Amino acid sequence: MFVCSRSSPTRTRVNALVSGLVILLLSQTVCASARADTKFPIRPVRLILPYGAGGVADFTMRLLGQKLSEMWGQQVVIENRPGAGGLLAQQTLLASPPDGYSMSVTGNGTAIGMSLFKNRPYDVLKDFTQVSITATFEMLLATRGDGLFKTVAEVIEYAQKNPGKLNLGAINPGSTQNLSAHLFKLMTGIDATIVTYRTTPDLITGVLRGDIDLAFDYYAAFKAPIMDNKIRIVASADDDRNPLLSNVPTVKESGLPDYVVTSWNALSAPGGLPKDILAVLNRDIVAALAEPDLRQKARNLGLKAQGSTPEAMRERMARDIKRWAEVIEKAGIPKQ
User: Fold this and answer.
1) How far apart are CA 95 and CA 232, in angstroms?
2) Where are the domains of the chain?
3) SS3 166
4) Which of 37, 66, 181, 314 is the most buried (most CB within 10 A)?
5) What gap in Å lies between CA 77 and CA 129, rounded to an integer?
6) CB contact at 8 A, 111 and 183
7) Buried b / exposed e along 4-36 (16+ C-beta atoms within 10 A)
């Protein structure tokens, strides 16, 4: 009895140690199993674009898709579904399961659409999972190469001295370009006419013909006439100068410190995406966008390729929904 009572504490300690080791091994097995269960992706991933082939968003997503395909060893399929102000693409996404195998391009246009259209069958902040911003690109203010205006100040001065005679040009009512022209009017208080064009080539023709005095669009749209010295960029609308146009001042530098207009594209998934899948997608998209060759190809079209956290993307979406809703209301733009 005495011997047994002396060995009991020792046996208890041994049993506790063995139990602890068993628990540790079991927990490691469970974690390994969980990691195996969430291996992603194991089949092709689809990127749904609300734009046609050949545009800036299409170009960006094909660059990104190629990088992700190389990283994952899985095909990334680009699906162009333009039309209805982005509605077709987003409804296609929301009809897909929240498993990470379908994402859509959202961004500044999506934010505008929440206020521009009377009935959106979704709320981009509630029904989508924000994954990452993919690229930003600033608005450019352009005149004819041999035109009167060389600076924003000269444009404003002319408009103030000649009310109603200045023509601003942009594509598509309710586009970021069009709303940028309205925002310019609101911030400067000038009396100017906004001429709307159906396509970017039509807009450029209007500039070259002298039908409009100041055009609003992106570097990709103006690249060819800039190279031919047919169009002069009087200002860019980012916080900092465009490296491709280092001699061109920003609108902030030109006397309008609050006029900053940068559009952006991003990727979203259906709401309810599991957090572990979101973490994989965000990590790999941000890493792909940091690749120097991808960034250089994007920069050649005036794009700044850079990822973000899901939280930063959500904050920007909410901020831009509010901003463009105010512009639409103040400019009196009818809802579509």
Assistant:
1) 45
2) 45-137+262-331, 140-245
3) strand
4) 181
5) 20
6) no
7) eeeeeeeeeeeeeeeeeeeeeeeeeeeeeeeee
Helices (H), the chain: 2-37, 56-72, 87-94, 108-116, 152-161, 176-188, 200-209, 219-227, 275-289, 292-299, 310-331
| Count of C-beta atoms within a 10 Å radius of residue 279 | 13
Topology, domain 140-245: D-Maltodextrin-Binding Protein; domain 2 (3.40.190)
For residues 178 and 193, is the Cβ–Cβ distance under 8 A? Answer: no
User: Does the fold of domain 140-245 match that of domain 45-137+262-331?
Assistant: yes
Q: Give the pLDDT of residue 275.
A: 97
Rounded CA gap, 203 and 214, in Å?
10
H helices of 95-146, in order, are 108-116
Phi/psi at 333 (5° precision):
-80, 120
Contact yes or no for 189/127 (Cβ under 8 A): no
Residue recorded with tokens 């999972």: 129
Residue 25: the pLDDT is 40
pLDDT digits (tens), the chain, 336 positions: 333 443 444 444 434 443 444 344 444 433 433 343 458 999 999 999 998 888 888 999 999 999 999 999 999 999 999 988 899 999 999 999 999 999 999 999 999 999 999 888 999 999 999 999 999 999 999 999 999 999 999 999 999 999 999 999 999 888 999 999 999 999 999 999 999 999 999 999 999 999 999 999 999 999 999 999 999 999 999 999 999 999 999 999 999 999 999 999 999 999 999 999 999 999 999 999 999 999 999 999 999 999 999 999 999 999 999 999 999 999 999 888
> Distances in Å between the alpha carbon of 207 and those of 55, 147, 196, 212, 229?
21, 9, 12, 5, 13
What amino acid occupies position 239?
D
Q: Which CATH class is domain 45-137+262-331?
A: alpha beta
Which are the contacts of 257, defined by CB distance < 8 A and separation ≥ 6? none
